[in-house]
Amino acid sequence: MRPLIVIGNWKMNGNLAANREWVQIVCHGMEKGMPAGRRYGVCAPYPYLAQCGELIQTCSLAFLSLGAQDVSAHVSGAYTGEVSASMLRELGCTYVIVGHSERREMHQETDELVSEKALQALDNGLTPIICVGETAVERNSGRAVEVVRGQISRQVSILQDRLADCLVAYEPIWAIGTGKVASAQVAQDVHRAIRLQLAEFDEDVASHVCILYGGSVKPENAVELFAMPDIDGGLIGGASLNPRDFLAICQA
Ligand code: PEP
Questions:
Q1: Nearest atom of ligand 1 to the alpha carbon of 217
Q2: What is the CATH number of the domain that holds 117?
Q3: Which of 11, 96, 105 has most ligand 1 atoms within 8 Å of its beta carbon, as the pocket-test mutant?
Q4: What does R_g of the chain's alpha carbons equal in angstroms?
Q5: Is 12 helix (H, G, I), strand (E, B) or coil?
Q6: Is residue 60 pLDDT above 80, yes or no?
Q7: Where in the sequence numbering do the catalytic residues fall?
Q8: Which residue's alpha carbon is nearest to atom 6 within ligand 1?
Q9: CA-CA 20 to 30 A from 93: which of 7, 62, 127, 222?
Q10: Structural domain tally of the chain?
C-alpha cells in the first residue's frame, strides 16, 4: 500500500517572518489530527532550510519533513553556487526536488544530469522527487505520454533499481502556475502510463514508487486528483505558499 504524499514547493518565495508564521499555522493545524498513512513535506529555498528545519522540530508531532528544491550532481569541490546532497542532509532535509521543469528550461538540465542529481541525493540518504512532464505543444500534438515515457526511460537506464527509493512527480508544464489543472482522468492516464513503464523494468518497483501530480493543485481540485488509483499525492507550488491552503490540500 503506497502512502499519500503532499509536498510544497515554495520556489523563490518566503522570508524569515513569513516562514515562521507558515510553519506555525501548518504545524498547529496538523497537530489537531491528520488522516492516517500520509506524509508531508515542504521544499524551502536554500537560505531558509536551517530556519525551517528548526521551526519544524519545535512541532510536538513530527508530521512535516523538510526538503530542498535542487541539489548538485557533484560531491564537493569547485562548483561555485552549488549545494551538495550531504549539506542538505546535514540541515535535516528528507526530500529534494530534481529536474523541475523550471530548472530544465532555465538551466538546460538534461535527464542525464537529473539522474546524476538523484544518485547524489540517494547516496546521502535523501529521497529525490524526480519531475517529468510535457509542454503544451507536445500535449496538443498527442505526444504527452511518449514524451513522459522518454523521460522515465532515461531515468530507468541510469538509476535502475534505485528508482525504488525515489518519488516521481508528473508535472505537465502547461499546468504549472497557469491555473490550468489537468483533469483527474488526464493526469491518471499519464500516471498509469508511467507505472506501466516502470513495470516493464520491475513490477515490484512499479507498484511501490509513489507518483505525485503537480500543476495548479488547489484545495478545490485535490480531492478528485488524489482519489485516482495511480495518483499518490501532489507536488504543490503556488497553493503551498498559503499555509491554510496547503493544510487543506494535505487534508484532502
Ligand atoms: C510546481 O512548480 O511544482 C507546481 C506544481 O506549481 P503550481 O502548483 O503553482 O502549478
A1: 8
A2: 3.20.20.70
A3: 11
A4: 17
A5: coil
A6: no
A7: 100, 171
A8: 237
A9: 222
A10: 1
Task: Look at ligand 1, atom 7, and give the residue with the nearest C-alpha.
Answer: 237
Going from the Cα of 51 to the center of ligand 1, the distance in angstroms, rounded, reads: 23
Ligand 1 geometric centre to CA of 163 (Å)? 23
Between the CA of 70 and the centroid of ligand 1 the distance, in Å, is 15
Distance CA 195, CA 172 (A): 16
pLDDT the model gives residue 13: 98
Question: Could you tell me which residues come within 8 angstroms of residue 182 by beta carbon, excluding any fewer than 6 positions away?
Answer: 172, 175, 190, 213, 215
Element housing 5 (H / E): strand 4-9
pLDDT single digits (tens) 97-150 = 999 999 999 999 999 999 999 999 999 999 999 999 999 999 999 999 999 999
Tell me the pLDDT of the chain averaged across its residues: 95
Is the torsion defined by CA of 7, 175, 194, 122 positive or negative?
A: negative
The fraction of the chain above a pLDDT of 90, given in percent, is 91
**How far is residue 128 from each of residues 4, 167, 223, 227, 238, measured CA to CA in Å?**
16, 6, 25, 24, 21
**Cell numbers 516502470: residue:** 198
Its domain, for residue 201, covers 4-250
pLDDT 10s digits, 208-248: 999 999 999 999 999 999 999 999 999 999 999 999 999 99
Find the 78 Cα to ligand 1 centroid distance in Å: 32
Residue 16 CA to residue 191 CA, distance in Å, equals 36
